[in-house]
């Protein structure tokens, strides 16, 4: 009988969803869906010192925006709940006590500083590991606080298989007698996640490579209970590119690193998810880079995962995001982009559809909009050098010749005919009549109304957007500046 795949995403509610965490959730979701299995959301909130009150809401909102929908979880329900660790305290106590009875764990009555040391490589000297039954009973009778520690093997090795990294072996003498249950009854991460993964029938554990060295402790717990091991997949880290060209683990110094921050910058959730999927995974038998969620599920397999670190490339994310903009319906993009335009979208109410249409094919993210259209509100400082264009053989002197007849022509255009199509028609006819190349004639017109070399749109589109009065005022002022330069 084929085993039903069950994966989980088990975040701690300690802040925003980092890109690395989002990728872990995405891969666990994609693998479960690709295998017709079940994806579980579990909230690991036992670290109360780092708990952030609204972090669970952020987790839920992020998963929803990324279209990563749990089959089981705190909100979805399921047969293996509760799905919040702080609601499972009795379960952890039961299994910790069971390990003590079996001789795989022991009560430690040492002072608090020593007790907390056992969660990492704190150097606990195993003082309480071999207490006599009488000493233990006396401590319990006296009400001495205690933690429960895992009794690690003192020699030999623990080996487990990882899908990406193969067999991983660690000498048991390197493993601390880690704390399983704290004196306040709270479980440690290394204990609770093993209990939960087993009881929730998780078959494949997909998580970051930082847990590779912790996994032998988990393997020994599985073995102590006589439980079958799940399949382990430890993902390589996501790196950021430093100014000197080197890489280091992705952090805020590289730029936005949380899903929420990227969305606020104007990256589409779908584009972020698409890009994150490619950070350490290559689809087989296709060079496709733009994927819907359904397509990601169809193509996803563990064989496509890389054990090498992936480097977060903001330019590549911008390219993918831009492609998503281009594929959007114009009306949908217009509404999406409008809040980023601020008050200008109201001032340019009539021409906003035209502006949005021009921006849609030029943006890599929405927060570029204010800079792209700032010139529509206020003309940049005059720069005669902008009228030099070698390719079109434009010079400031040539521009002084071209602009006056154009201004005269545009002054004769009725307000009701001031639209892009008509402006293009009459300017094109004028350019042909005087025998100039189109690039040579249109460059100074565009610079005269925009005051900058890069614009979202050509000369006639900008004339229409700015309107007759504003356009002519700008052109006349630019011409006067040119003549006095």
Count of helical segments? 20
The percentage helix is 40-55%
- Name the beta content range: 5-15%
Number of strands: 12
Largest sheet: 3 strands, antiparallel
Radius of gyration: 32 Å
Description:
With 485 residues, the protein is mainly alpha-helical. The chain contains 20 helices and 12 strands. It has helices at 19-34, 55-65, 89-102, 112-117, 133-142, 189-199, 215-225, 259-264, 269-277, 293-299, 314-327, 330-341, 344-347, 352-360, 369-377, 396-411, 420-434, 438-450, 459-466, 468-484; strands at 6-9, 38-41, 105-108, 147-150, 157-162, 166-171, 179-181, 204-208, 231-235, 238-241, 247-249, 310-311. The strands form 5 sheets. A 3-stranded antiparallel sheet has the order 3-4-7. β8, α7 and β9 (231-235) form a beta-alpha-beta unit. The protein is elongated, with a radius of gyration of 32 Å. The relative contact order is 0.08. Residues 114-121 have low confidence and may be disordered.
Show the helix and strand layout.
Elements (H helix, E strand, L loop, with lengths): L5 E4 L9 H16 L3 E4 L13 H11 L23 H14 L2 E4 L3 H6 L15 H10 L4 E4 L6 E6 L3 E6 L7 E3 L7 H11 L4 E5 L6 H11 L5 E5 L2 E4 L5 E3 L9 H6 L4 H9 L15 H7 L10 E2 L2 H14 L2 H12 L2 H4 L4 H9 L8 H9 L18 H16 L8 H15 L3 H13 L8 H8 L1 H17 L1
In short:
With 485 residues, this protein is mainly alpha-helical. 45% of the residues lie in helices and 10% in strands.
């Amino acid at each position: 009988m084929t085993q039903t795949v069950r994966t989980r995403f088990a975040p701690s509610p300690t802040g925003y969803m980092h890109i690395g965490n989002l990728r872990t959730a995405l891969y666990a979701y994609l693998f479960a869906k690709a295998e017709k299995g079940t994806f579980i959301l579990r909230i690991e909130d036992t670290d109360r010192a780092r708990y952030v009150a609204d972090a669970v809401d952020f987790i839920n909102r992020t998963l929803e925006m990324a279209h990563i929908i749990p089959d089981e979880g705190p909100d979805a329900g399921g047969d293996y709940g509760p799905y919040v660790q702080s609601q499972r305290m009795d379960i952890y106590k039961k299994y910790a006590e069971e390990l003590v009875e079996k001789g795989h764990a022991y009560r430690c009555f040492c002072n608090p500083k020593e007790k907390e040391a056992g969660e990492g490589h704190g150097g606990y000297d195993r003082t309480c590991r071999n207490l006599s039954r009488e000493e233990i009973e006396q401590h319990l009778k006296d009400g001495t606080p205690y933690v429960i520690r895992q009794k690690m093997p003192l020699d030999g090795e623990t080996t487990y298989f990882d899908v990406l990294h193969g067999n991983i072996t660690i000498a048991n003498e390197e493993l601390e007698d880690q704390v399983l249950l704290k004196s306040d009854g709270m479980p440690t991460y290394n204990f609770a996640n093993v209990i939960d993964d087993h009881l929730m029938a998780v078959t494949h554990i997909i998580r970051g490579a930082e847990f590779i060295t912790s996994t032998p402790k988990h393997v020994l717990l599985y073995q102590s209970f006589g439980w079958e091991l799940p399949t382990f997949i430890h993902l390589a880290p996501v790196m950021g590119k430093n100014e000197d060209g080197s890489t280091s683990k992705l952090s805020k110094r590289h730029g936005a690193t949380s899903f929420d921050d990227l969305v606020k910058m104007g990256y589409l959730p779908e584009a972020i998810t698409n890009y994150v999927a490619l950070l350490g995974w290559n689809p087989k038998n296709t060079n496709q880079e733009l994927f819907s969620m359904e397509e990601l599920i169809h193509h996803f397999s563990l064989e496509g995962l890389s054990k090498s670190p992936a480097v977060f490339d903001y330019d590549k994310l911008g390219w993918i995001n831009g492609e998503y903009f281009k594929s959007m319906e114009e009306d949908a993009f217009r509404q999406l982009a409008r809040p980023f335009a601020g008050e200008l979208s109201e001032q340019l109410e009539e021409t906003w559809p035209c502006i949005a249409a021009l921006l849609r094919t030029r943006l890599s993210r929405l927060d570029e909009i204010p800079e792209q259209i700032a010139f529509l509100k206020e003309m940049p400082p005059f720069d005669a050098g902008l009228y030099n264009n070698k390719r079109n053989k434009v010079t400031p002197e040539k521009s002084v010749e071209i602009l006056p007849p154009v201004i005269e022509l545009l002054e004769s255009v009725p307000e009701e005919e001031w639209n892009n199509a008509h402006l293009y028609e009459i300017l094109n006819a004028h350019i042909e009549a005087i025998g100039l190349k189109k690039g040579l004639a249109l460059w100074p017109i565009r610079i005269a109304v925009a005051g900058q070399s890069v614009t979202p749109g050509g000369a006639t589109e900008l004339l229409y957007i700015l309107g007759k009065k504003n356009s002519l005022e700008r052109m006349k002022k630019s011409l006067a500046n040119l003549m006095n330069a």
